[in-house]
Write a structure and sequence with these properties.
By secondary structure, the protein is α+β, with helices and mostly antiparallel strands. It has helices spanning 15-34, 48-51, 56-60, 74-88, 106-116, 160-175, 187-196, 203-210, 213-227, 232-242, 248-259, 263-279, 346-355, 376-391, 405-414, 425-430, and strands spanning 38-39, 45-47, 65-67, 97-101, 124-133, 145-154, 180-186, 289-291, 305-311, 320-324, 339-345, 369-371, 396-398, 419-422, 432-437, 443-447. The strands form three sheets. It has an eight-stranded mixed β-sheet. Strands 13-12-14-15-16 form a five-stranded mixed β-sheet. The relative contact order is 0.11.
Amino acid sequence: MAKPNLPQGTRDFSAIIVRKRNFIFNTIRSVFELYGFQPLETPAMENLETLMGKYGDEGDKLIFKILNNGLDHPEKREKAKAEFAKVVEGKNNSNITERALRYDLTIPFARFVAMNYGQLTMPFKRYQIQPVWRADKPQRGRYREFYQCDCDIVGSYSLLNEVELINIYATVFNKLNIAVEIKINNRKILAALAEICNSSEKLTDITTAIDKLDKIGIEKVKTELLQRNLNENQLNIIEQYLSINGSNENKLQALKNLIGKSEIGKKGIEEIEYILNYTSENTNLQNTFVIDFTLARGLNYYTGTIIEIKAKNAQIGSIGGGGRYDDLTSTFGVPNLPGVGISFGVDRIYDVMEELQLFPENLHTSTQVLFFNLGDAESKAAYNLMQQLRSINISCEMYHEPQKFDKQFKYADKKNITYAIIIGTKEMEEKTCTIKNLKTGEQKTIQQKEVLQYSF
């Protein structure tokens, strides 16, 4: 039999990793709740038509499609064979696949809102913490199965929602002790860039190329744009745009000089200025909030503000991102419903915290007290005492069988258990127990009835 292994881009999680991940989940969840968001869960799979066409050509290629059940039937199998090559090319065929694993949590959320629109209190604020799947090339910080933590607001055009989401980011990363840059841009500004290039029809081509800037550099971005039939003059305008730098205020002034005559560009600048003015006095955002006009976020559904989070002290990709999507639900029959949302990349956040050693030390321990097993009568007395401690939320366990002290001490050490409680023949007679702090070596004998008052 071949040695068992995992599908590429997936992982098992041991107890300590689960605890660390839960620390991240619980921190994010607590902030979502603090800001008034409600929990939501959606199925792991969606109808393929729900997902396709929502993420751009690049994203559509990364959707995990699920083969139809019943393909063992000869007639269905022959139809599938004839059409399979088209599916490999990225085209859909209902003879082969009608469903897919969710690519993100935003589109399923939009589908949920469209299906339940009449029953929801608007604006509707939800958070969602579930796994998603992408047929991407696995690498450090990039997996094929990973968790997203999203929060979204639909039913409001107010830019106060963007301010709230930016502050959620600041609050979470402050609680996790991760120094970050919160980068912001606006898709209206990118639309204005395409407009002054006299190439509005190529907005998607331009944003898709710009979105790769950090990975491939300016020269390769220009090469890609040339391949998409932009000319040298247009490339010069785009390069000038991508070269804007300085303080947030200096960047805005340079941008006004470049695209200020565009009406949609003016609107994008106004929206960024609103958010900048609202957050300028927030101490959590000092030296954190950065206007970055190279930020594109290649997903087609963004219409306004776009946000991305980078860890300052770790060499890893973005650890969060999001933006405004004011027409997303129209694809599901509910037009003109504005929305804005953000997502946390938990797996990358985990990698950053592991690299920077930011997890609390007490996450390594679940069991606080180990009761030694020294025989049948002794273990029964110990078990009764253990249940009493459990009733007041002291986590305990008993060694599974009578063994020498050395073996039971080694077990406690390997599990990082702090206290051992020993009830032997003498303790049984005197109704006492010996409590040993395994970290300090301190040992004390007390009456069994006093254990519930002991400070573990």
